[in-house]
From TrEMBL:
Biased composition (Basic and acidic residues): 83-97
PANTHER family: PHAGE SHOCK PROTEIN C (PTHR33885)
Chain ranges of the Phage shock protein PspC N-terminal domain: 18-73
Topology relative to the membrane: Single-pass membrane protein
Protein name: PspC domain-containing protein
Domain of life: Bacteria
Organism field: Natronospirillum operosum
Membrane-spanning ranges: 44-73
First-listed, main subcellular location of the protein, grouped into a coarse class: membrane
Region (Disordered): 82-106
């Protein structure tokens, strides 16, 4: 009996994976919208897959959808989860991760990293030239006089 209660408790908590039906965005039972939220995919893509499965495997698709409606709990109104994010190097900030956004190729990312490192190296060289120059010593002496 406790296993039965454990199952319903896990179901109510989204199986610890933020796996719920999303009735707010859903059309029928909210299964495709909930799976879309979990997998970070647009729900229309999963609906298209579901319609294709319905055309090819009619009874299996219907039973699978009904089973998902039963096994997945309805999304709570106040769910405390953060969306999955990835770092966007061009914007220098995190953005929501999308399954269908293609990152730069490794060679492009390497080129960008090389450009950034070259820029840092140039700035460090400029700073070293200034610190080791007579101008730096002169500026330092003037700043002592002004204080």
């Amino acid at each position: 009996m406790s296993q039965f209660n454990d199952f319903w408790e896990k179901r109510r908590q989204g199986y610890g994976m933020n796996l719920y039906r999303n009735k707010k965005k859903g059309w029928l039972g909210g299964v495709c919208a909930g799976l879309g939220d979990h997998l970070n995919i647009e729900p229309w893509i999963l609906r298209l897959i579901a319609v294709g499965a319905l055309m090819m495997f009619t009874s299996l698709a219907i039973f699978a959808y009904l089973a998902a409606c039963i096994l997945l709990a309805k999304r709570p109104k106040r769910l405390k989860t953060r969306p999955q994010t990835e770092y966007d190097e061009t914007a220098h900030q995190d953005r929501p991760r999308s399954m269908f956004s293609y990152p730069d190729t490794p060679s492009e990312r390497l080129r960008t990293a090389r450009e950034r490192l070259d820029d840092v190296l140039n700035r460090v060289e400029t700073m070293e030239r200034y610190v080791t120059s007579k101008r730096y010593n002169l500026d330092r002496e003037f700043s002592k006089i002004q204080d």
